[in-house]
Every structure is written in C-alpha cells, then in structure tokens.
C-alpha cells in the first residue's frame, strides 16, 4: 500500500461515521475531523515561494542546529494550513473566519502529523452554521505541536467525505 493510499484510508476511517446524509450524521458539538499529513522538503520549498518566508531555519541544517533544533523545521503556518483544508474538504463552500494558534513543538520534514478539528460550538446563522472549532496537531501519536481555535461559516452541518485531491 502506498503512502497516499494509507493517508486516504486513514482519512476515510476517521470520517466513516459521517458516510450517509441522515440527520443522525449531522456535524455537532464534540465531533472530530482528522487528517494525516507528512510534510516534505518540496512542501517547504513551495510554501517558501508563495509566502516569501526564506528563514534559514527551514533550509539550512547548520542554522537550525545553531538555534537548538536537531534539523530543519517545517514552517508553522504550513502545518496550520491543515485546519482550513480539513474543514473545507468536508464542508465545500465553508468560509474560514478566524484562527488562533499556539506553536508548542517544532515539526521536522518527514514527520507524520495528525491535524484535528473538534466542534466546540455550533449555532445557526441565517440558514448557515457558525462553528467554533478546537484545533490541534499531533506528532508521534500524542505529542502536541500546535494548538488553537478556529471559526468557520458552514453552508450545512452534513459532512461530506473528502472530494478534493489528496495532497501529493
């Protein structure tokens, strides 16, 4: 099984409770959506190009080691990009309204990261739904690397399995 197949299978397993469109499967407080991602050197290079963030901590091992890291680190905002992706891939048409972030641990190239969003408040707003999420990223199964909260306006609370192309 390829890495992409494993990631897709992992995503499908995480979302299996939402596989039908019944009212019982509506997204509600306490529900969690997860996605696994391994950030590559190519991801770091491409993110640097669009963000103009060329901090040597991301490209130069010696610089990273001088700063106290064992190796180059992934841009924190690149890791945080998991959150809007998780939300929009399950609620097409969602509008990302806000995000707060607290970076807890570095993420290194090649580490498997689990991004998670959990609904902590859902309220109806003019035929749409304003949802506040607890957001976090973990590595090695349970090490918290990123923590925060996000708010999004969802067109519906009925979840869809991922329709967008899996990140390569």
From TrEMBL:
| UniProt domain MaoC-like: residue ranges | 34-132
Where in the sequence is the signal peptide annotated?
A: none
**Membrane-spanning segments:** none
Q: Name one Pfam family in it.
A: MaoC_dehydratas
Q: Mind listing the GO biological process terms from this record?
A: fatty acid biosynthetic process
Q: Which domain of life is it from?
A: Eukaryota
CC terms in the record's Gene Ontology section: mitochondrion
| Uppermost EC category | lyase
Q: What is its EC number?
A: 4.2.1.59
One annotated GO molecular function is: (3R)-hydroxyacyl-[acyl-carrier-protein] dehydratase activity
Q: Which InterPro entries does this entry report, sorted A to Z? A: HotDog_dom_sf (IPR029069), MaoC-like_dom (IPR002539), UPF0336/Enoyl-CoA_hydratase (IPR050965)
Q: Does the keyword GTP-binding apply?
A: no
Q: Which UniProt keywords apply?
A: Lyase
Enumerate the PANTHER family for this protein: HYDROXYACYL-THIOESTER DEHYDRATASE TYPE 2, MITOCHONDRIAL (PTHR43437:SF3), HYDROXYACYL-THIOESTER DEHYDRATASE TYPE 2, MITOCHONDRIAL-RELATED (PTHR43437)
Q: What protein am I looking at?
A: 3-hydroxyacyl-[acyl-carrier-protein] dehydratase
